[in-house]
Amino acid sequence: MPMNVGHEIEGISHRVGGTGNEKFLPFSIETISTEESNSLTSNTVFEDLNTDVSDAKSQNSHIVTNVLKTLFFILIWYIVSTFLTLYNKTLLGQSMGRFPAPLLMNTVHFSMQAVISNTVTWCCPHKFRHSVTMSWHDYFVKIVPTAIGTALDVNLSNASLVSISVTFATMCKSAAPIFLLLFAFSFRLETPSYKLLGIILVISIGILLTVSKETDFELSGFIIVMLAAVMSGFRWTMTQILLQKESYGLKNPLTFMSYVTPIMAAVTAIFSLILDPWDEFTTNNYFNSSWHTTLSSMLMAFGGALAFFMNLF
């Protein structure tokens, strides 16, 4: 009997059900290949979807982490800044007999920041100074004015606390964005617009209302704190110019501090030698004995530590 192998193979079937009424489906290699292909395609789609979902979750987690980190730094900055303001007011106000040398105090603060920041950056140059490239021309044209503006801002702000309250000084210093925008217009960092002019107008009206409602108004203190606001606007405008220049490599706060604080300390020391009452130190309660001088030095060092951590954040 002849054997037709080809027809025998094509006739092979496999069982799907087995309850008495058996049903047979013809075995098809093409059908199996199509099903496997569809299965592989579906698996690939699900894998891509899972990957996209995983990437989205990772990105959202990264955004949330950055937001929480930023909020944490802002909170720490406000806490340290508040402590520093209260420290300055307490030391320079009537409650502790008015510290006789506010400029000397600021010189100590700036000197501490200069020593600490330069020590750290020089000990770890690969992390802080490897990307800093600045000519002497840029140093004197951009770094020096920024440092002088910052020194004047801090010194004038502290001087105003001698005659006006912390609340009034803080509200007057809120005029700094006005001068910041004006300097930004001057240096062409911002383009004037009706929106920005409206912001300036609203802030100005708020400052006028604040001044008109102040019961214990002191003209000299108001003038000093407004000059501090002007210097604050100039200082932050120059800071923005320095930070936007990638080649300077000053985005790290320690690196930036190491460049500006030595000049700030030198400028304030010159003002201290001229304006502080050095001839009265021996009769003042803060410096009339070695023990009092030691306590005063510790007080100034404490303020310097607060100022360093505030600038660090």
UniProtKB/TrEMBL annotation:
It is a multi-pass membrane protein. Signal peptide: none annotated. It comes from the Eukaryota. The chain crosses the membrane at residues 67-87, 161-187, 194-211, 217-236, 256-275, 295-312. The keyword Transmembrane helix applies. PANTHER family: SOLUTE CARRIER FAMILY 35 (PTHR11132). Coiled coil: none annotated. It is found in: Membrane. Residues 69-288 form the Sugar phosphate transporter domain. Keywords: Membrane, Transmembrane, Transmembrane helix. One of its GO terms (cellular component) is membrane. This is Sugar phosphate transporter domain-containing protein.
